[in-house]
Amino acid sequence: MYRCIAHCVLNQIGDRFDNEDDIIKIAQSTVIRFEGNQVFCNEKDVTQEIRTPLVSRHTSDVARIKAVRDLMVAQQREYAKDHEVVMDGRDIGSVVLPDAQVKFFLDADVLERAKRRKIELDEKGNGKALAEIKNDIEKRDTNDRNRSEGPLVKVADAIVVDTTGKSIEEVYQEMKTYIDEVCR
Question: What is the pTM of this model?
Answer without folding.
Answer: 0.78
